[in-house]
Design goal:
single chain; 591 residues; alpha/beta; Rossmann fold; Alpha-Beta Plaits; TIM Barrel; 3 domains; 8-stranded mixed beta barrel; 5-stranded parallel beta sheet; 47% helix; Cyclic-di-GMP_PDE-like; EAL domain-containing protein; Nucleotide_cyclase; phosphoprotein; cyclic-guanylate-specific phosphodiesterase activity
């Protein structure tokens, strides 16, 4: 028996042929080869019941049979079992091309011609079983990853809705609750509570004591019987939000605020200590034109300067709101006024330390507002649809810059620049054609430009996004899935989208050196990506321990502050020339 035959000797093979002689011949051949689970049938009407009772790994199926021919039987199996239909090799004497094509369309994997050549029969059976085994292993890995992603996603979902120290609802839940109460037309007072002196308490008495104090304060507030408490939540570590279903009036706000102040000021006896927490409370009332976030922000702006006091919202909050509006207006002329520029964060080869590419990141220097943080202006850009115009500018700048680098021979022909493509861009029906024309006219090879899209952006309109990305991939562009694993956590789109790169989200990288679940998930993503021949990029790498783990897992590229922040061109090209093989991180790994 051959080594390949031994590998599949336990395979369940069903021979279906109305000629008993052919059935007997094939059964003898398979048994002589060492197959232990073989069965023959001359009545095709019995096959469906056999598959339902025990699904074979492979069916050797004759085409021309009475009562139910092979093509009809294939169609029946496909209708009943879809993707679970067993593998089929068709037994033929001489069939016409149309019949052969129909058999292939119905899922037949191969053909065996009568009279049978024994060596050919065994080899084709082995080949088909080998293919089925590889497909099964791929499905098992995909199922494992789906399971890990689902489990981790559930954990992240729970954690993302609560504060880790107190288990109180976090800001997402706070905003949801405000929205729900407002939708029910309930009057609402929002109290923004700033807890003072927590860091000093932690340094003096230990951070475990500080955490216990927070939990005790949480219990005291929730036990207040004379406060119409709707929700107590944590906005940040030392900023809490109290929602009260109450008529909006200064008298009600003062009554509740004073009660909260007394509750927070009550001394806490803990570990033979008497601990005090000072607070400041800002208040805002519900209003038709205010969103949940505005209500919280208005209450936060109302925080008084002195501790153990409260203050209601006044017109001063408008200054903060006006800034957002003014930034939005200023962005309209940012491109024409040359206020925007790009920085580039290098992508480092995990094995060699070479800089293989860079991500282009947008920055804004306003003549009025100065250097504006991307965290402040990018959401405005996306919300006001500036992203379509500015996104085109980013791509044109990145293309021109990369052409210049290549002309200077500062980078090699394999160096890539990645640009982020937002949902609004993908939803432009002519986006792919525009991009293809821009790159073709520039003379830059399409493969040098990498397009980063997020899972959530893909899901906004999967059909249109898929069409755009397939066109771009066919033109030679590399497609990267950004923030992989934190969006819809589904692998389904990997089957249909022309993905070349998976960027593992920093949410899994940031704690992978201390969180076993994050390590398992990251390893599984890398293994899966390798199986599909995807390039893997780990984002947000900041610690040497993270780099070591990613190197051991076989990640291809890393990006993060461990090696470099976003840089101007000159500094980036200097690092491209030098590489990071001599950096402390690589030297520490002995690379």
């Amino acid at each position: 028996m051959t080594a390949l035959g031994k590998l599949f000797s336990a395979a369940d093979i069903l021979v279906v042929d109305d000629n008993p002689v052919n059935v007997e011949l094939l059964l003898d051949l398979l048994e002589d080869e060492g197959y232990r689970t073989v069965e023959g049938m001359t009545d095709p009407l019995q096959v469906e019941a056999r598959v339902q009772t025990k699904r074979p790994d492979l069916i050797l199926l004759d085409i021309r049979m009475p009562s139910l021919n092979g093509l009809q039987l294939l169609q029946l199996l496909n209708n009943n079992y879809a993707e679970n239909t067993p593998a089929v090799i068709v037994l033929t004497a001489q069939i016409d091309e149309a019949t052969r094509h129909q058999a292939l369309e119905l899922g037949a994997q191969d053909f065996l011609t009568k009279p049978f050549n024994h060596i050919e029969v065994l080899q084709r059976i082995h080949n088909t079983l080998q293919l089925q085994r590889l497909l099964s292993e791929r499905a098992e890995k995909a199922q494992l990853l789906e399971s890990l992603v689902a489990e981790r996603t559930h954990e992240l979902s729970v954690l993302s809705r609560q504060d880790p120290q107190t288990s109180l609802p976090n800001r997402a839940v706070i905003l949801e609750t405000i929205g729900q109460l407002r939708s029910e037309s309930k009057d609402l007072l929002t109290f923004f509570v700033a807890l003072e002196g927590l860091d000093e308490m932690g340094r003096l008495h230990g951070y475990d004591v500080m955490d216990q104090v927070l939990c005790r304060l949480s219990a005291q507030v929730q036990e207040l019987a004379d406060v119409p408490l709707g929700l107590l939540g944590v906005w940040s570590s030392d900023k809490w939000v109290v929602l009260c279903e109450s008529p909006v009036s200064e008298a009600q706000a003062e009554q509740i605020a004073q009660r909260l102040l007394r509750a927070f000021q009550t001394p806490l006896a803990m570990q033979q200590l008497s601990l005090h927490v000072a607070v400041r409370i800002g208040v805002s009332g519900s209003s038709v034109e205010r969103s949940p976030e505005q209500m919280v922000r208005m209450a936060a702006v109302a925080l008084p300067a002195e501790t153990n006091c409260w203050q209601g919202y006044d017109q001063a909050l408008e200054n903060s709101l006006w800034r957002k509006n003014q930034l939005s207006q200023a962005l309209y002329g940012a491109v024409e006024n040359n206020e925007l520029h790009l920085l580039y964060q290098p992508k480092v080869d995990v094995q060699t330390g070479a800089v293989r590419g860079a991500e282009a990141l947008l920055r804004w220097e306003s003549p009025v507002f100065g250097r504006v943080s991307p965290a402040e202006f990018i959401p405005i850009v996306e919300a006001n649809r500036h992203i379509v115009e500015i996104g085109k500018w980013v791509i044109q700048q990145a293309v021109a810059t990369l052409l210049s680098w290549r002309a200077q021979q500062a980078v090699d022909e394999h160096f890539t620049v990645a640009v982020n493509v937002a949902s609004a861009q993908l939803m432009q029906a002519d986006f792919s054609q525009w991009l293809i024309e821009v790159v073709q006219q520039s003379g830059l090879p399409a493969h040098a430009l990498e397009l980063e899209v997020t899972e959530s952006d893909l899901m906004e309109n999967m059909q249109l996004a898929m069409l755009q990305l397939q066109r771009l991939s066919a033109a030679g562009f590399r497609i990267a899935i950004d923030d992989f694993g934190t969006g819809y956590s589904s692998l389904a789109y990997l089957k249909v989208l022309p993905v070349a790169v998976l960027k593992i989200d920093r949410a899994f990288i940031s704690e992978m050196h201390v969180n076993a679940q994050d390590r398992r998930l990251t390893r599984t993503v890398i293994d899966m990506a390798r199986h599909f021949q995807f390039t893997t990029v780990a984002e947000g790498v900041e610690e040497p321990e993270q780099f070591k783990l990613l190197q051991e897992m076989g990640c291809d590229l890393i990006q993060g502050f461990l090696f470099a922040p976003p840089l101007h061109e000159a500094m980036l090209l200097q690092l491209v020339a030098q590489g990071f093989a001599a950096s402390p991180a690589f030297i520490a790994q002995g690379l």
